[in-house]
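Dear all,

This email documents one entry for the complex benchmark we are building for the journal club exercise. For each entry we list the sequence lines for every component of the assembly. Then comes the predicted three-dimensional structure of the complex as a token string, followed by one or two observations. Please use this as the template for your own entries, and keep the labels exactly as they appear.
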Amino acid sequence: MNVLLDHFADFREGFVGTVLLTLASGLLAMVLGVVIAGFRVSPVPPLRAFGTAWVTLFRNTPLTLLFLIAWFVVPVIFAPGMSPWTKALLALSFYTSAFVCEAVRSGITTVPLGQAEAARSLGMTFSQTLRLIVLPQATRTVVAPLSSIFIALTKNSAIAGAFSVTELFGWQKTLSDQGYAIAWIFLWVALGYLVITFSISGLFQLLERRLGVAR
Amino acid sequence: MTEVSVAEEDKAATGELVVLKSVNKHFGALHVLQDIDLTIARGEVVVVIGPSGSGKSTLCRTVNRLETIDSGTISIDGRPLPQEGKELARLRADVGMVFQSFNLFAHKTVLENVMLGQVKVRKADKKQAEDKARALLDRVGVGAQADKYPAQLSGGQQQRVAIARALAMDPKVMLFDEPTSALDPEMINEVLEVMQQLARDGMTMIVVTHEMGFARSAANRVVFMADGRIVEQAAPDQFFSSPRSDRAKDFLSKILHH
């Protein structure tokens, strides 16, 4: 009768799968993105080149292609025996980290140069200057674009479903194969995604307001 | 350790703290610093003046390598400036810098601004750093503002905090890059008084400024720059009463009229 009620356990499993995959790859993308952004503004030319190469590679490759590479190339060349979930995590977070990096870098450029000069003239190293002075002041500008990036990540995680990782979008395929009315399935899937994306934008709005007051 | 400090004392006696030798720098086609030779003795207060675009700010910024140079050498306390890296960072900690636009850390309170370098660079104990910071803030007359953010302070107060922040590192030499140029007229004196006190206490200072009053009263030597060269240097009395070069005469006639 009702797809959602009949298969709620599967739906819940898919929903939780999407949330976990988004959270984990969001976290890893965040860490990678900040580090790579640091590379891109570093005074060391090889690090800068690495950062630029990373962003160019992962920002300009279709995500599906990255998934295919994670599935069929990475196990052969680098690390055999990774679980599908890990492969999905890597593909998603590497891809997203390129966008996080550019958002963070644009935030860094909004911090007046004098702030970094003052830090350096006190004897701080490059990484201290970045960590203690520049990044904290860049955070406010970076929050808004980051929220968009994480919402995009949530929806991009649907690709993992096509690669047999348990997540929300995969639920749709299983059930439409069983002959349920497609419109209802899509409606529930869409609502599931909305819950996650609305939570993300709500969270980031809160963050923006907090940072706005506390400078 | 004691032997090292004795050796440093000996070097102190020889007196040369900052030495620039045939320093050249270009900004593209512009030759901003042309064969600059300048020696600053320990405890000396040198005021650098000159028309805008003469390279005096650039000169000041090369001393702690915020600007790189194309040729020549700069050494501080007998050691040449190293390449960018940990070594340079260590040397910069010994060179205090005060900027035209204050550059206080906007996301930190006044107290944190003065503590940060001590704690993160000198690895000082937090409590000691705070005591020292409060003492320095009192000394420059902004002790009551310790818990405010820089944006809540007047320009004159911000610049005095910036001086305290630099002093917290116990620098061997202080660089002032037009410290009063961004200030409203009524705030200039409060900053100059702090600098004058500092000069009386024996701090080695390189001051780029347009404040001729300060040059007269606090400087041991005036360095006059124009078009990327040091045109003339002399004791302030001598320089202001009877400048030798035409360039300096012209400059003084323009600024001393009003």
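Observations: The mean pLDDT of chain B is 91. Residues 140 and 194 of chain B are 6 Å apart (CA to CA).
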